[in-house]
Design brief:
The protein has helices at 12-25, 34-45, 58-69, 75-86, 134-157, 173-185, and strands spanning 2-3, 7-9, 50-52, 91-92, 103-105, 110-115, 161-166. With 187 residues, it is an alpha+beta fold. It has 2 domains: 2-70, no CATH class; 74-185, VSR Endonuclease (Endonuclease, Chain A), CATH 3.40.960. Helix 4 (75-86) crosses helix 6 (173-185). Bound molecules: zinc ion. Residues 117, 122, 124, 126-127, 166-168 line the site of zinc ion.
Length: 187
């Protein structure tokens, strides 16, 4: 089984584990990043076979590492900081709502979902599935999209208005702030 196109673990459970780590962080799994390179030595010492073929430049690897480490500075944190700056009160990951939505504004009865482009299959450049192992990735990503749609429909059926913020839409903070403001104010 291959992970992200260029890393193969001989033990399938390891692929699943690595994949779940990146799914949790909502960033695309890397192709042979420094992160994986660092740990492959340990796996091999423990008798687990790891084959890798790193085709990334050092600069690309550095960026991937940053995105993996930066859970608290990622898109969701940015949205939270903007909302806070705008003076809106919100709750996080409310367990009593379908799919534990990322950000909930109870007073406005609104929900904001922050989606990583890769795992939620956005139609942007970052949202493209890996070129290799399409038979593996496509069903997985399609299932995520299906789950997102169900979650959104449930929330709307319960009377919540939902806004999706994509990772790629968090580049321009001012534009994003204006959109968030419009959404929260909208009746
Ligand atoms: Zn995107």
């Amino acid at each position: 089984m291959k992970l992200g196109g260029s890393l193969t673990f001989a033990v399938p459970q390891l692929n699943d584990w690595f994949e779940s780590q990146f799914a949790q962080l909502d960033v695309a799994p890397p192709d042979g990043s420094r992160f994986l390179n660092r740990y492959s030595g340990a796996f091999m010492r423990n008798g687990l076979k790891v084959c890798r073929m790193d085709t990334r430049t050092p600069e690309q690897r550095r960026k991937i590492m940053q995105s993996v480490k930066s859970k608290d500075t990622g898109p969701e944190m940015l949205v939270r900081r903007i909302l806070h700056r705008l003076g809106y009160r919100f709750r996080l990951h409310r367990k009593d709502l379908p799919g534990r939505p990322d950000i909930v504004l109870p007073r406005h009865r609104k929900v904001i979902l922050v989606h990583g482009c890769f795992w939620h299959a956005h139609g942007c450049a970052k949202g493209r599935p890996p070129k290799s192992r399409k038979d593996y990735w496509l069903p997985k990503l399609q299932e995520n999209v299906r789950r997102d749609r169900t979650k959104l429909e449930h929330l709307e059926a319960l009377g919540w208005q939902v806004m999706v913020v994509w990772q790629c839409e968090t580049k321009d903070v001012e534009v994003l702030a204006a959109r968030l403001k419009d959404f929260v104010r909208k009746v």
